[in-house]
Design brief:
The protein is of the alpha+beta class. The protein is built from eleven helices and seven strands. Strands 1-6-5-4-3-7-2 form a seven-stranded antiparallel beta sheet, with helices on both faces. The structure holds calcium ion. The site of calcium ion has 7 residues, from α3 and β3.
Length: 245
C-alpha cells in the first residue's frame, strides 16, 4: 500500500527535486558549522550560477578564480571576475564560443560542440590563473582508470581528504549530473567545485553551478565516483586537482 501511495504521489506531484544521492545544504549543514571547511569558506562567498546551459565551466571558474585570488590583496580598482570578463579577458576566443549557449553561433565560429572536456577545462584554468597572476604549483587532470576503478576511487577519496585540510588546493569535478541529482534529463557532462568533504560520513558537498535548479548538495562518495567515472561526462572521465602556491 505504501509503495502504491508513493507512485500515486509521484504521478500527482512529480519526482522530488533531489534524488537519493543529493541532500541540499539547507537541510544538512552541521559539518559546515562544526568544521573549519576552508574551501567552503573561500569559495561560497563567490558562488555563482551558470548563465546558460553550456556555461557550467565558466560559472565554476568565476567562483574558483575569485575565491583563490586573495581578496585582501585587491585594490579598489580591481573588479571581481565575472562570466563576461572571463569570456572577454581571461580565456580565449574558442572558449568564449564553447560556453556561449548557442550551438549555431559556436559552429559559425569554428566550435563544433558546446561545453568543454575536463582536459580543456584545465587548460582554460591555467590560462586564467596566469592572466590574473595567481601563483600555482600544479593543475592536475586526474583521469579515471577504468581498468582499476577500485584504485581510482581510493585515489579520489585520498585527494578529497588532502583537499579538506586547507584552502591552498581545490578540486573541480567533471561528472554526469543526473547520477547525483536523480534527474533523468541531467544525464550529461557537468562541472562543479567540491565545497567540502565530510570524511566521517563519506559525503561530498557539490557547489553545483546549475542554480536555476539547485542549491549546493551533499552526495555520497560512492555516487560521486560513479558520476565522475561515467563516460557520459567526458570521453576521458576525470577531475581537476589545483594546488596553489
Ligand atoms: Ca582545499
Amino acid at each position: 500500500m505504501k509503495v502504491l501511495l508513493f507512485f500515486i504521489s509521484l504521478l500527482a506531484f512529480g519526482a522530488p527535486k533531489y534524488g537519493i544521492n543529493a541532500t541540499p545544504l539547507s537541510k544538512k549543514n552541521d559539518f559546515i558549522r562544526k568544521s573549519p571547511a576552508p574551501d567552503y569558506w573561500m569559495l561560497s562567498p563567490y558562488y555563482v550560477g551558470q548563465d546558460n546551459d553550456s556555461s557550467c565551466s565558466a560559472a565554476t571558474l568565476v567562483t574558483l578564480l575569485n575565491g583563490v585570488r586573495l581578496s585582501s590583496e585587491l585594490t579598489q580598482k580591481d573588479e571581481l571576475v565575472t562570466q563576461a570578463s572571463l569570456r572577454e579577458k581571461f580565456s580565449d576566443e574558442k572558449y568564449k564560443f564553447s560556453v556561449c549557449g548557442d550551438s549555431a553561433l559556436a559552429l559559425a565560429n569554428g566550435v563544433a560542440q558546446l561545453g568543454v572536456s575536463v582536459k580543456r577545462f584545465s587548460e582554460v584554468l591555467k590560462g586564467a590563473l596566469d592572466k590574473l597572476k595567481i601563483k600555482y604549483h600544479e593543475v592536475k587532470v586526474v583521469e579515471i582508470d577504468h581498468k582499476n576503478l577500485k584504485q581510482s576511487q581510493k585515489q579520489l577519496e585520498s585527494i578529497l581528504n588532502e583537499n579538506e585540510k586547507s584552502n591552498r588546493d581545490v578540486v573541480v569535478l567533471n561528472f554526469t549530473q543526473g547520477i547525483l541529482t536523480g534527474d533523468e534529463e541531467g544525464m550529461i557532462g557537468h562541472i562543479a567545485l567540491v565545497g567540502a568533504y565530510d570524511a566521517k560520513n563519506k559525503m561530498v558537498l557539490i557547489l553545483d553551478p546549475d542554480r536555476k535548479w539547485y542549491e549546493p548538495y551533499w552526495s555520497p562518495l560512492n555516487a560521486v565516483f560513479k558520476a565522475v567515472s561515467d563516460s557520459r561526462s567526458d570521453p576521458k572521465p576525470g577531475y581537476v586537482y589545483l594546488k596553489l602556491k
